[in-house]
Design goal:
Blueprint lengths: L1 E3 L4 E3 L5 H15 L6 H34 L5 H33 L11 H6 L2 H8 L6 H11 L2 H15 L21 E3 L8 E3 L2 H25 L3
Antiparallel strand pairs: 1-2, 3-4
């Protein structure tokens, strides 16, 4: 674990604590000088969520992986429930981590000394990585941040994270495939083996694939914070 000065919490080792602290120091120097601005009210709350959701995502991922390691494929309905809850928590918290980062960036960009972007109730409700990218694309000063957001929003990884989050939030759990065989042993079960739905692709992988997905999340978070720092320090 790594201690985050910004959050005063122990967070997973892959959390970009150095980038987070540097970004927040730059942001505070803008939105708290000489007094607290409206931008700080939104940026402060969103920045707290970044660390909380990152840790929650990691803990839920480990809950799922550990359940598979201990119990394997043949489990009770109670254990299935616990796994599904962990999977839901992982993808919900992971998407929230990125969205909270973009909300904080949008709040920062709304400060008059930067871009003065509108960020009232309507804009706050509609804030998303894609909308932030569109808003910033009109400003050459934000080119590096726009490029980072473009890479994020057009990635297959982000699309999968969001699709899985949306499916499990208000449509259904991801339908699990159970292997069987007649007259022979069934093939080895995979920790992640799900059928396609109307909004998610078929999904088959070992439990370690969740760790790969989490590594992508950590890398994407760092990229956003680094680009956000450069934006705050622009000439």
């Amino acid at each position: 674990m790594v201690f985050s000065t910004t959050h005063q919490l122990e967070l997973p080792d892959s959390f970009p604590a150095d980038a987070m602290d540097a970004f927040m120091a730059a942001a505070r120097s803008i939105v708290l000088t000489p007094t607290k601005s409206d931008a700080w009210k939104e940026l402060g709350g969103a920045s707290n969520l970044i660390g909380w959701r990152f840790r929650g995502c990691h803990e839920d991922m480990n809950t799922y992986i550990n359940s598979w390691k201990v119990h394997g494929a043949n489990v009770s309905f109670e254990e299935i429930y616990l796994r599904e809850r962990a999977l839901f928590g992982m993808f919900t918290a992971g998407v929230s981590c990125i969205e909270s980062t973009c909300y904080a960036l949008n709040a920062l960009a709304s400060h008059p000394s930067l871009l003065g972007l509108p960020f009232g109730e309507r804009e706050q409700r509609a804030c998303s990585p894609a909308r932030l990218q569109k808003s910033l694309s009109k400003h050459s000063e934000a080119l590096a941040l726009v490029t980072t957001l473009d890479v994020l929003t057009n990635s297959t990884e982000w699309t999968l994270w969001v699709d899985l989050r949306n499916r499990m939030t208000h449509r259904s759990n991801i339908p699990r495939i159970i292997q069987a065989a007649v007259g022979a042993e069934p093939p080895p079960a995979k920790a992640l083996h799900f059928a396609a739905t109307s909004s998610t692709p078929a999904f088959e992988a070992d439990a370690s694939h969740l760790e790969t997905m989490f590594d992508w999340l950590a890398s994407s978070l760092r990229n956003l914070l680094v680009a956000g720092l450069a934006f705050a320090h622009r000439p």
